[in-house]
Amino acid sequence: MNDIKFTHLDSSGKVWMVDVTAKQPTVRHARAQAKVTCSPQVMEALRTGTVPKGDVLAVARVAGIAAAKKVPDLLPLAHTIGVHGAEVDVILNEDHVLIKTLVRTADRTGVEMEALTAANIAALTVVDMVKGVDRSAAITDCLITHKSGGRSGNWIRPGFEEELEEKC
User: Fold this and answer.
1) Does residue 128 carry a catalytic annotation?
2) CA-to-CA distance for 67 and 122, rounded, in angstroms?
């Protein structure tokens, strides 16, 4: 554990915001996903568009995109970067809603937090819109699946290799 260096800690252990001034902008992207488990009744209402609060899937997509642009307001050490592209896909599976996000930039630091935030907020939106009919709805498995660009290069979470698409 002694070899681990946390970039947001200076040599004396104080928190600081990493200085990226000297870094050159590069094209970067990150993908994340989250799941929302729901009751069979809610999954059917989502499929048929009969959730009392309205079009859950559309609102979740818009909420996720908006959230990707707000990360520096939420995470105190996150840099303000240009979110040049953001996609939120909301997929209805048998017993859960799968939210997949893709965020792109050409900036000095990555967009992993933007992709995770988009997935989390889209998931929270689903829960908010169905909680009146399903108090048991739960967010699970929110994680980064891919990232590219920057000094550390490309990374793919094991088990997600087949999900890379031409959009990246």
Assistant:
1) yes
2) 8
3-state helix, strand, coil in the chain (%, to 5): 30, 30, 45
Please, how many CA atoms are within 13 Å of residue 77, restricted to the half-sphere of its CB?
10
CA distances from 58 to 96, 164, 166 (A): 16, 24, 24
47 vs 79: CA distance, rounded Å: 38
Q: Dihedral (C-alpha) 118, 121, 123, 127: value to the nearest 10 degrees?
A: -170
Terminal CA-CA length for the chain: 34
Q: What pLDDT digit, counting tens, does each position of 106-146 carry?
A: 999 999 999 999 999 999 999 999 999 999 999 999 999 99
Q: Are 132 and 50 in contact (CB under 8 A)?
A: no
Q: What is the pTM of this model?
A: 0.90
The one catalytic residue among 95, 107, 128, 134: 128
Q: What is the dihedral of CA 129, 33, 58, 50, to 10 degrees?
A: -50
Interatomic CA distance for residues 39 and 132, integer angstroms: 12
40, containing H or E segment: helix 40-48
